[in-house]
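Appendix B, record 7
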Amino acid sequence: MTSFETRAAQLDAADPLAAHRAKFFGTDEATQSSTPGMPLAYFDGNSLGRPLAASMERIEDFMRSEWGTRLIRSWEEKWVDLPLELGDRIGAAALGAAAGQTLVADSTSVLMYKAARAALDARPGRTEIVLDTDNFPTDRYLMEGIAAERNMTLRWIEADPATGVTADQVSEVVSDKTALVLLSHVSYRSAFIADAPTITRIAHDAGALIIWDLSHSVGSVVVELDAWGVDFAVGCSYKYLCGGPGAPAWLYVRKDLQEQLRQPIQGWFGAKDMFLMGPGYQPAAGIRRFITGTSPVLGMQALIDPVELISEVGMPAIRAKSQLLTQYVIDFADEVLAPLNVTVSSPRDASIRGGHVIVNHPDMQEVNSRLWAEDIIPDYRDPHGLRLGLSPLSTSFSEVYLGLERVREVLLSLR
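Structure tokens (predicted):
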């Protein structure tokens, strides 16, 4: 065994979360060897998490019992409040959020639009939105569209893709013209963790509101929204929360702001008395007012068990393993891949590094294609970056070693 193979085995043997890996479909060797196309090494848990076996059972039971048997009665019995109940569970398990501030509904983009429009309406007379050039495309596209609708100015922070937005950069651009700041807590490209508490304070000192995109944070790094004083946070649920492709997203709105805000996409599920169906819209109290149409109940089912598992394990333990996994990748890259001209463009300081690592080489796009053909699944990000996403609950160190060793072998074959 090589030194890194031995180290992987030792880390797996000492891993307090190792037993949870078997709860995910496709992680046992028997399934991998007997199922064509099953990944031998999965490095995309930061983009689409593996499903829990319990989620599969829950969905089948939901189809047969709640939907199939109780039919429309289930709305009154269980479904109407599910967006709020599940939101509270996500808030408690992974967001540092007290009850009554988080809901599950819509997509990340729609919830971000709702939050942004509500925030801008709450800051009349201000004309600028602050965001950064390396944020996820949808975040930028949404703000471009909203700014055009409202004749506002976008103030761009030129973010270094290898690091991320700093507090100093935010301080330089906010002013009494700033209505809203929108940033990602963990960079989707480099995994840099922004200083959310400090940046939030800077935005507030300027009189602005702030939205944090936590899509690459929730379920991966420790988040304390209440303690940080965050106004809004939005995130998807199909990455580390393992809710499945297209799973509904979640929205956090700080408690003391809720009654001041009017969300822009008014619908009957967010009305004060949804079954009155009156001639005019009156918003519900609290976070419920941010719901619009009929809740995606079926889409929420796969989220329930992963959120319970995160709550059981605890974010500090998940974060500790995440740091070990990403450090293992960086050490392998430095010792084994660097002689092949591979560089690391994620932060080396574990305290500001999220749950994935980018390794760069001019041939990484071809490497990614060849690895996918071999059922080893990372993803590619320009320029020349192989992104290795390491979901702590479902990823073993030996799996990481296997994938990294194939990266080395493919690079050698391309020389």
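Remarks on this record: The chain is about 40% helix and 15% strand. The chain has a mean pLDDT of 96.
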